[in-house]
Amino acid sequence: MIERLMRPYFHIPFVLLVGACSSYGSSTPRDCSQGLSYDGPSILENAELRFPTGRFGSTGTIPAATVQRLDLAFENALEMLPTETVDAAVLRLDGSRYLRTAGDPSTARDLHYWASAGKLFTALGILVLEEEGRLSLNDPISNYLSGIPDGELITLEMLLNHTSGLFSANEDAQVRASNKLMTLEDEIAVLQRHGNLFCPGTNWRYSNSGYALLAEVIEQVSGQSYHSFVDGQVIAKTQAERLRVMAAGERPENVVALSQANGDVREVINHFGGAGSVIGDAESMAAFVAGVFEGSVVSETTLNRMTQQLYPMFHSASDPSQPTRYNGLGTMVYVAISQSPPSYLMGHSGGLDGASSFVGWSARHQAVVVVALTGAGSADLIASRLAPALE
Predict the structure, then answer these.
(1) Which Gene3D superfamilies is this protein grouped with (predicted)?
(2) Residue 256 pLDDT
(3) Is 300 exposed, middle or buried (0-12, 13-18, 19+ CB in 10 A)?
């Protein structure tokens, strides 16, 4: 067992998506044992999700009529949202692309922070290491870190799909009130103080802390910093040119500041670790997502595993029994229940006070759609308007 507890780690001063997610489990179990099975809300297994039918091209052109529909969809969405800046991209399988921005980011600050969409990158880092035979998703986190509640029962797979039962440290009142850079020891102390919310593997609850621990696993197994490994072994396998993971504690000078609800403008400082540390422009993010789902980063077999078992996150307001978003291994699946049969998008969302993001692949439209924004509003909403405009 390797212990690395005293170096500066990360601090999550805002909620990264978790606030609106389904929240299952509320008591601290006293007696968890191996062999317990999942008994939460019904999962979606073996959904008919389709990946790109080949590699993305580079020479396609979006028809003028489609561009007009995309423009109208983008502008109508913005009328509903009090955003400050928006960066959006659509990349179709034939290589044709649609790029739109809004607001007035300076030429010196033209990149956006992608919040919890960065969890997709962390998950891919773990899966790359698994494909190389350097770890197993069945490994308990106790193989890498000591002091994690029920760590001998929590597998890396449970951390990836949020079934570990771990508390999410950013929800701790003391953590949220603090501006200090936490150490890994601090993080583990918060997890110990709150205890697990349910026995590992028996339920689902979004945990930023789980992804913080996964970043530490990447560092231990690879021998590199988290950001160096993901930049070199995940992002570099795609055509993304202006996309990277921030170093721990970094304050990048070329990223649009967060415009918060109280009117404050806050610089992006990387306190987020494996829970979401990616910055870039929408065009590069679209190229990255295209590379992921065409199989440039991990194999199609691994991509299928990422969505083989899907846990419900959000439900329809009109039909609370109907899930509209699921969570797999570092990826989210969005269900358009208004369509028959329902269509699916695969990707990840992110959100915190002052920023929102969405990245996804739509098999129905054979296209990648990505959106990052600052200010108030939902990147998901803009993406949900852009995708149908491709029809």
Answers:
(1) DD-peptidase/beta-lactamase superfamily (3.40.710.10)
(2) 95
(3) exposed
Q: Return the CATH number at 298.
A: 3.40.710.10
Task: Say whether pTM exceeds 0.90.
Answer: yes
- Tally of domains in the chain: 1
Please check whether residue 11 lies inside any domain of the structure.
no
Structural tokens at position 308: 């083989």
- Work out the angle at residue 70's Cα, subtended by the Cα atoms of residues 332 and 104, and round it to the nearest 5 degrees: 85
In angstroms, the CA 247 to CA 245 distance is: 7
Q: What is the pLDDT of residues 357-389, one digit of tens each?
A: 999 999 999 999 999 999 999 999 999 999 999
Whether 25 maps to a domain, the answer reads no
Let me know if residue 17 belongs to a domain: no
Please report the sign of the dihedral spanned by the C-alpha atoms of residue 271, residue 217, residue 161, residue 50. positive
Task: Tell me which residue of 154, 242, 253 sits closest to 205, measured CA to CA.
Answer: 154
What is the spatial distance between Cα 259 and Cα 278, in angstroms, rounded to a whole number?
18
In 3D space, the residue among 9, 325, 298, 320 whose CA is nearest the CA of residue 162 turns out to be 325
Length of the chain counted residue by residue? 391
Q: SS in 3 state form for 317-350?
A: CCCCCCEEEEECCCCEEEEECCCCCCEEEEEEEE
Q: Give a yes or no: residue 36 inside a domain.
A: no
CA proximity to 130, closest of 273, 285, 359, 301: 301
Sign of CA pseudo-dihedral 126, 110, 252, 380: negative
